[in-house]
Design a protein that fits this description.
28% of the residues lie in helices and 23% in strands. The protein is an alpha/beta fold. The chain has two domains: 111 residues, Urease, subunit C, domain 1 (Roll), CATH 2.30.40; 305 residues, Metal-dependent hydrolases (TIM Barrel, Alpha-Beta Barrel), CATH 3.20.20.140. α4 packs across α6 and α6 packs parallel to α7. The N and C termini lie close together (6 Å). The model has no long low-confidence stretch (mean pLDDT 96).
Length: 432
């Protein structure tokens, strides 16, 4: 399959011969699909439409459009890492119809002008950009940003990026305000006084001679977030869960009816801290990769419904940032284009869960967190669809990727499935 992605706009689009798969309704059939002005107007066999852009999707599977809850771009301020255009191109290659972009930029997305500028840069792209507004001004943790102004400007939610909110008072205030505006609050839960290590605190950290970050840093942050969400009776979305204790805390909170949701990354589902032993900067993540027992707990939590979504946690870096000592390299990895393939490898190919459950984690789950209606194949519904090739042997090579980020942990990794494109309203993108 070609690495090139063709993007176009069409008033009338006819998808021919695809397998339509929707776990929410039980739909699983081969059918044609007609889309006009971005809306689904007809399903059936042998459909014809005058002056329609026809896509032959024989052998491909069309599903409800993927949504990513956590992406960091470089623009504005660090276009060498990722521009809006290159980030959206990478998202399209990953099958996403929409991505939530964290507010970490220069300037920080803590005012209406920053939101407007981001939305304008993404106006005519096949992928919808959903800005997340900063909770505190400048992400400095000192005073709340004007969350009302950000809400009116069009943010999809609020987020403090990788710093996270520090202390119960800040998180409680953020919960109160986000509830007032009817928007989700995203939190990377960590107790900062215990955080800050280069890798997980354990045997690997000792062997590498590096500072470790204990599970306790995350566990205490998750416990605080759950308790405050319960006290405020406000919804909270916890991001990048990585420890077995956090999973158990979430399970107990759900049993008490606490309005808390959570996600994890494909990297934490597929890798352990052993990957860090070769000092590969693309394995230097926040939170750090954990031991195998934590990975197994995450796999069970994903399959069992304790976690609601899988997010790419795309954090691209450029080469000069990686050509230095390990503790000086930036945290994160480029992961938009590989997220689904990695998750499929870790979950479906290993027999942990079904393809249908994996699709929920990439579409229905993220949409619930964002309080968006589910994507569907119903006549009259907006066309928000991801196209998958579920029988595609391919190898990830950064030189062929659409992201500018060079820090992928999956260089030369072979996969068996791959997103082939998307339809998002009047826009579409197709590989090859």
């Amino acid at each position: 399959m070609s690495t090139e992605l063709h993007q176009f706009e069409a008033e009338r689009l006819l998808l021919k011969g695809a397998r339509l798969l929707d776990p929410a309704t039980g739909l699983d059939e081969h059918s044609d699909l007609l889309i006009e002005d971005g809306m689904i107007v007809q399903l059936g066999s042998g459909l014809e439409a005058a002056e329609a852009e026809v896509l032959d999707l024989e052998g491909l599977t069309v599903v409800a459009g993927f949504v990513d809850l956590r992406v960091r771009l470089g623009e504005p301020g660090r276009e060498d890492r990722e521009t809006v255009e290159s980030g959206l191109d990478a998202a399209a290659a990953g099958g996403y119809v929409a991505i939530c972009v964290t507010p970490e930029a220069t300037p920080v997305c803590d005012h209406a002008g920053a939101v407007t500028a981001l939305l304008a840069r993404a106006e005519e792209h096949a992928v919808t950009l959903l800005p997340l507004g900063a909770v505190t001004a400048g992400l400095l943790g000192e005073r709340l940003a004007d969350m009302g102004e950000l809400a009116r400007a069009g943010v999809a939610g609020f987020c403090e990026g990788n710093r996270g909110l520090q202390g119960g008072a800040a998180l409680r205030g953020a919960l109160s305000y986000s509830r007032m505006f009817g928007l989700p609050l995203f939190e990377l839960a960590r107790e900062r006084s215990l955080a800050g290590g280069d890798v997980h605190e354990g045997s690997v950290a000792l062997r590498m001679g590096l500072k470790g970050e204990p599970r306790l840093a995350e566990d205490l942050g998750v416990q605080l977030g759950i308790r405050l969400a319960e006290f405020e009776q406000a919804p909270l979305h916890l991001q990048l869960i990585s420890t077995r204790e956090s999973v158990e805390l979430l399970r107990l909170a759900r049993s008490r009816g606490v309005r808390v949701s959570a996600d994890c990354s494909p990297q934490h589902l597929a890798l352990t801290h052993e990957r860090c032993l070769d000092f590969d900067p693309s394995a230097r993540l926040v939170p750090p990769l954990r031991p195998e027992e934590d990975r197994q707990a995450l796999l069970e939590a994903v399959a069992g419904g304790v976690l609601d979504a899988i997010c790419s946690d795309h954090r691209p870096a450029e080469f000069d940032e990686l050509d230095r000592e390990y503790p000086l390299c930036p945290f994160g990895c480029a992961s938009l284009e590989t997220a689904f393939a990695v998750a499929h490898l870790a979950l479906v190919e290993s027999g942990i869960c079904s393809l249908e459950r994996l699709l929920e984690l990439f579409s229905a789950g993220p949409r619930r967190v964002l309080r968006l209606p589910p994507a569907s194949f119903e006549v009259g519904a907006p066309a928000e669809l991801t196209i998958l090739d579920l029988d595609c042997a391919w190898t990830y090579r950064g030189a062929e990727a659409l992201t500018l980020g060079v820090n992928s942990p999956w260089e030369n990794q072979s996969f068996r499935v791959r997103p082939a494109g998307l339809v998002n309203g009047r826009y579409a993108a197709l590989r090859g």
